[in-house]
Structures are given as structure tokens and as C-alpha cells.
Amino acid sequence: MATSQQKQTHGKYEHLMAKCQGLAPVRTAVAHPCSDSALAAAVEAANLRLIDAILVGPEKKIRGAAAAGRLNIEKLHIVDQPHSHAAADKAVELVRRGEAELLMKGSLHTDELMAAVVARETGLRTARRISHVFLMDVPTYHKTLAVTDAAINIFPTLEDKVDIVQNAIDLLRTLGLEQPKVAILSAVETVNPKIPSTIDAAALCKMADRGQITGALLDGPLAFDNAISAEAAREKHIKSDVAGDPDILLVPDLEAGNILAKQLTFLVGADAAGIVLGARVPIILTSRADSVRARLASCAVGMLLAHARRTGAASATAGGA
Description:
Number of domains: 1
Order of helices and strands: HHEHEHEHEHEEHEHEHHEHEEH
Distance between the termini: 37 Å
CATH superfamily: Isopropylmalate Dehydrogenase
Radius of gyration: 19 Å
Number of helices: 12
């Protein structure tokens, strides 16, 4: 268990940044970086040699954002496109043609970028369901905490959840965690036919027992208190190797996940690095509300996944399918 000092401080992204030392920056198509905050994320990551940024969007707006934010983009390549929709399509095209190994969201809406990603003929689909993971540095928790899916799949089915949880497991294994612990969240810790997420949780655990989900230790359903607190689990007589020590929280649906992630960010001061998995390449998602640390951590995760994909160490989650 962590010390009280560890629990009250940030610092959990440093190991990600350390893993990036000595690796070559990864060619990254940045879709429509036309606000100073979106452009700053790409420029900061490029300056730290995490990415080699290709800025895709209206050149005049990009240069205007650079001037407004006092950002030096003279060494970055710009691919001029008339508007955000065209920028999303072009950024995806660059990935399909092998001219970029990562895709990064700029100042366009996530839905607009993902529409280009999932386009049946021209997108970046694989056999795996596309899903999102927040890698969160929560000051009151003793290690990095992954929350999934809080951004892509609105009401995932059981079949969807198999891919969502496997994506997250594969991510953490690629980042060096041998056997992640997965807490499958619901409102209660017992199976209740009136609460569908408890049925899904029980099914997912049995699927893991049967080898349909691999590489992790799953337990659920678990309510949030007994997922995060071993003491709460003991009070409810829950015997679990996951309770109090999860690496991954699998949420019932997007609403629950989004609320949870934002509560941790705005009430506890957590940082939330975001990555989309299951496409041909990892997709870096940043937000205007992100801290500099979270933006750079998102880029670091993308970089590490891209390098793992090159060496064959990553699974379909990192774009290998």
C-alpha cells in the first residue's frame, strides 16, 4: 500500500515520461489544431520530442492560433485544409497511407474526429470495438487509475464491454503492468437481475475464468466504495483480490464514467490523460480543461503504444489488428 505522502501528491505520470526517454518522436497527424490551447498541446509534445507533429487544418487559422499563444511552429509541417471536417478526413488519410503513426485531436469536436475514424471505407476500424481510457493521476489514490469507457460508447452491451475491458487491459500490459486488476462497477456489489450492469459484471468475470478475456484479474459487480477501499470491502464481508487495489475501473456506461472522471478531476484535483484504443493507431484526445501534465501524458502514452506496435509488443488495442 502507498504511504500517506504518496496518496496526497501527484507524480504518477513520471514513469510514463521516463519510459519515453531515448525513443524517437512519433509522426502524429494533429486534426484541426486551431485554438491556442489545442495547438499548445501539440507544440509542447513536439518540443519534448514525444511526437513529430503534422498540423492538419486551415493554415491561416493555425498560424493565427500560434500568434495568439506565442507558439513557435516554424519547424512543424502544416497540411492546409479548408475546415474541421476536411481536416479530420485528411488526418485519417495520412494515417492510412502510413505517413503518421498516431492521430491527435485538435480543437474540433470528438464526434467529428471519430466520424472520420469509424468511416467504413476510409476510416481506421479494426475487428476490435473502439473505446476510450482515462489514465488518471488521482492525488488520493496510490497508483495510476484507468477509467473506461467515459467518452465513446454510450450504452455498451455485454459484447461491447468485452472489447472495452480487453482494450484497457492490453494498454496497461503494454505499459508494463503484468496483470492489471479490474473492478467492474455498479451501484451494488451483489448480482441483482433488476440492475443490468450487475449481470454484465458477473458474465464478464466468468468470461475471464473461461479465457474469453485475458491478461487481468477481474472482479465485480463492485460498488465504488468497496472497489476503491479495502476497508469498505471488509465491512461488507467481500473477499476480493481486486477491492482496494484496482488498476482499471470498468464503468456501466458513458454517463457514469464521464461523471466519475470529472468528479475526480474537479473535486479531487486529478489529472486525466486520454487515449482512444481499438483503431489502427492510438488516438490522443486532449481537452481545453486538461492540465499541461495530462496533455503530455496523453502524448507519452500514444508514443509508447506506437513504439510497442513497431516492435510487435502491442496487441490490437495499440492498433495491431
